[in-house]
Design the sequence.
DNA sequence: TAGATTGTGGGGAAAAGTGGGGGATAAATA
DNA sequence: TATTTATCCCCCACTTTTCCCCACAATCTA
């Protein structure tokens, strides 16, 4: 399970180090892709394949299915870590997530997310106030 | 499985290089045809044949079936890669997809899509904002 | 404080993409 | 039918990008 928050830099060549703690779980081969709030999702292969299977069950004749599949699959890249434990992030993803230098890597249970530091701070502070409302509607019964 | 996004140029002769990563999957012979959002679909032969079988099961007495089959089949061209790994795109398809120079080739699971770069950017940015909503309604249960 | 682990940066070889020239084949016209 | 014109491919060469390796810096640990 992925938990925690790490601050790393992405260099000029688009490389960013995966925290060693996460490498133990991910291994050397995994998948990264576009995430919904302009961040990058990092999935172990199994988890990614599971989502792909679900997406492939949707017909390409449906507009929303095409859009989301395109969004999710076109952003995807099979990663093999280099010997220093870094990911080479493809430039479309760097642009999408607006990564410049300072990045945040956070664990969210079944995946990691890579954020531009500034964007992450903004997102967090923007929903800190709403968190009470957000939580309100998550479950109907006691969890 | 086709994933990822590549930016290549189509030259004056209508040739565009297929990313080497995809060539491994496609081989030298495959099919391209009109895609739904004014892009070009690229299918391995097997996948294309499968879709054709599905289309042939639709009755030609239905107007929509006739229209879609005509759209899909009339655009189709059997491709043989040249020795540099490039496709010669027929001019009707170049016109249909509005290809000028900069193109984007994206993997969307079972096929590739070739887009004019500008058109692709517009499409993506137009649905970036909605992606959250689109994702919201794709599945009812946990996937 | 010494050693190991983790993160950062850069240089160089190999691969991939791009563009243009030329020859063969097919089509068009007189 | 002969000549011209156009089209299609193949080949070569250049440029750009990617990947792999090495080296250093910073941090943590014993």
Sequence:
């Amino acid at each position: 399970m992925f938990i925690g928050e790490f601050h790393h830099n992405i260099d000029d060549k688009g490389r960013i180090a995966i925290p060693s703690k996460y490498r133990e779980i991910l291994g050397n081969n995994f998948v990264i892709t576009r995430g919904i709030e302009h961040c990058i999702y990092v999935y172990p292969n199994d988890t990614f394949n599971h989502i792909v299977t679900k997406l492939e069950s949707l017909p390409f004749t449906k507009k929303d299915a095409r859009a989301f599949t395109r969004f999710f699959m076109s952003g995807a890249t099979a990663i093999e870590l280099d010997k220093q434990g870094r990911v080479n992030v493809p430039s479309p993803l760097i642009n999408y997530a607006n990564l410049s230098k300072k990045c945040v890597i956070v664990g969210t249970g079944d995946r990691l997310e890579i954020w531009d530091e500034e964007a992450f701070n903004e997102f967090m502070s923007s929903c800190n106030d709403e968190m009470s409302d957000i939580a309100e509607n998550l479950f109907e019964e006691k969890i």
